[in-house]
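Thread: Molybdopterin-guanine dinucleotide biosynthesis adapter protein, structure

OP (GT): Posting the sequence first so everyone is looking at the same thing. Length is 225 residues per the record. Can we get the C-alpha cells written out before standup tomorrow? I want them in the notebook alongside the other entries.
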Amino acid sequence: MIPVFAIVGKTDSGKTTLLEKLVAELKKRGYRVGTVKHDIHGFEVDHPGKDSWRHAQAGADTVAISSPQKLALIKKVDHDLKPDELVGEYFQDVDIVLMEGYKRQDKPKIEVFRRELSPHPLCQPQELLFLASNDELEYGVPRFALEDIKSMVDFLEERFLTARPTSETTLFVNGRSISLSSFAQRVIAGALLGIISALKGVGKPQRVHLWLRAEDRQEDDTSDR
C-alpha cells in the first residue's frame, strides 16, 4: 500500500509551506512523491479561449494537455473523490502521497499547530501521526519543530517507507483499497507476471498496472437454476 498522509491545520498556519519542505526532503532522499490539494469550493485551472478550454466547453468529459515534459488531466467527476480513489486511479507510480486538506477523511494526519491561531489542535490524538509546531504542549503524539523537516522525514521513512516490501501487490476496486493477505498477493502477482513473461518484447517488469472495467453481466435465461 502506498502511504498517504493528510496535512491539516488552521488557515494561514503554514500547511503549504510544510508540504513543500517535506516534498523537497523526500525528493532529496530519492523518493517519488505525489501531492494533492483538496479544494472544497471548486477551482478552475484552464483559461477561457485556450484550445483545451474549448474542448471542455464542447462537452469533453476528460481533457488532457500533453507535452514532452508533463501531462495535465482535467476530468469531470460526479462526486468529491476520496483519497483512496485518487491514489488508486492516479498515484500508483509514487512511493508516498501528501495531501493538503482532507481533515475529515480517515487518513493519518500531520497537523500544523500554532497557538496564536487556535488554543488547541483541530484533530484528536488518535487521528494524528504527529504535530508540526513550535509551541510546547502535551498531546500524546510526537511533536516536531516547524523547521525540523529532517526529523519529520526520518519519522516517515523509518515507519512507512524503508519498511515497505520490495515486492507488493495492491488492489483497488471502485477506487477503494482492498486488503490482501500475503498469500493472495503472491497468487495474483504470480499469475499476472506469468502472463507478462510470455509476452514478446515486454522485458523485465518493475511495476505493473492493470485497469479492468467490469461490465454488468446478466445471466443467460437458459442457464441452470
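GT: Both are above now. Quick notes for whoever picks this up: Strands lie at 4-9, 33-37, 62-66, 71-75, 96-100, 109-112, 128-132, 143-144, 171-173, 176-178. The first helix runs from residue 15 to 28.
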